[in-house]
């Protein structure tokens, strides 16, 4: 956890410059700079909110930038390179534990399950979690939600990730798929659409969903510094209202319709594959249907972090989560 925070601190100056250069959007309405942790079909409701004009209806010009990493996303937020971050809720706890005077507050939930899948190099018609024992497992970054959920699920199935298998965690997030494709690992934990692409190409086969196995958690949420929320409460409420419209739209429309709306965000992915991934996430309840991050989800998050040995301190739900904004939006 300390290493995570040091990376954030060391990157602040660079990200002030980066986000002032690459952020882009339309020029209408009040500007809101959003930094997303990665570009993913997992975040479909966010792209729907942009493409269906829900933010514009609220008078907001959302400028979306992809940071490619949790530490980089939080760096952008802390350095005022972004107004709002879309990233795992665990990052707000890490920052809080360092004694932040301007804590990062989770105000709207986007996804409510883990978004990764277990991919096997070999096709296993009758997969058992015991099949992982004595194999090489290509995991995610230490301290990040994907890795913590992965270890949590493995332990639920009686597998000690640090003694029952060869766990690899030193590969950068963006290079994990390439490492597996080049022959590293017997199993890998992957997001979509990479998991389905590998299955289509015969590189690997999806055998389990970490989202289904781990239950409801605030996996990715929109968050901002307390000072920004205090100074821009109406803007944050408008943002949350637009998001809620998109969440409801996604929930009430087919995977094909969702895929058609967000296709422009994934130029290198076939429409049919986007549709398949959206359907998979919809069917397992990954997309939150409202922006409220409730207490049970927050406690489940901390249980997963504690099991992974990455929880620096217990934090009450009300300390880093603001549900008033989302509740007002839904109530109205």
TrEMBL record:
One of its GO terms (cellular component) is periplasmic space. The keyword Cell cycle does not apply. SUPFAM superfamilies: Periplasmic binding protein-like II. Keywords: Signal. It is found in: Periplasm. Transmembrane segments: none annotated. It comes from the Bacteria. Belongs to the bacterial solute-binding protein SsuA/TauA family. This is ABC transporter substrate-binding protein. It comes from Sutcliffiella cohnii.
């Amino acid at each position: 956890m300390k290493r995570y925070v040091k990376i954030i601190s060391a990157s602040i100056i660079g990200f002030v410059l980066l986000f002032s250069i690459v952020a882009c959007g339309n020029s209408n309405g009040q500007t809101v700079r959003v930094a997303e942790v990665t570009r993913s079909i997992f975040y479909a409701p966010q792209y729907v909110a942009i493409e269906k004009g829900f933010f514009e209806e609220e008078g907001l010009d959302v400028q979306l930038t992809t940071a490619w990493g949790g530490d980089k996303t939080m760096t952008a937020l802390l350095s005022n390179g972004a107004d709002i971050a879309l990233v795992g809720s665990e990052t707000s706890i890490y920052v809080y534990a360092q004694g932040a005077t301007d804590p990062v507050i989770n105000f709207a939930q986007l996804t409510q399950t883990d978004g990764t899948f277990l991919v096997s190099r070999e096709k296993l018609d009758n997969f058992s979690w015991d099949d992982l024992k004595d194999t090489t497992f290509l995991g995610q970054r230490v301290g990040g939600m994907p890795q913590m959920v992965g270890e949590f699920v493995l332990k639920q199935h009686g597998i000690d990730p640090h003694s029952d298998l060869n766990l690899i965690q030193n590969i950068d997030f963006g290079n994990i798929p390439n490492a597996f494709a080049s022959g590293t690992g017997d199993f890998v934990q992957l997001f979509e659409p990479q998991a389905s692409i590998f299955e289509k190409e015969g590189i690997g086969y999806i055998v389990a969903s970490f989202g289904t196995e781990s239950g409801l958690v605030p996996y990715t949420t929109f968050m901002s510094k307390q000072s920004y929320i205090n100074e821009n409460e109406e803007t944050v409420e408008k943002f949350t209202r637009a998001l809620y419209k998109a969440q409801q739209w996604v929930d009430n429309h087919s995977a094909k319709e969702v895929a058609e709306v967000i296709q422009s965000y994934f130029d290198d992915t076939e429409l049919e594959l986007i549709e398949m991934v959206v359907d998979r996430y919809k069917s397992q309840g990954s997309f939150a249907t409202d922006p409220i991050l409730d207490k049970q989800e927050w406690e489940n998050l901390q249980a997963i972090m504690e099991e992974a040995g990455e929880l620096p301190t217990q934090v009450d739900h009300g300390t880093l989560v603001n549900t008033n904004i989302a509740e007002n939006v839904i109530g109205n």
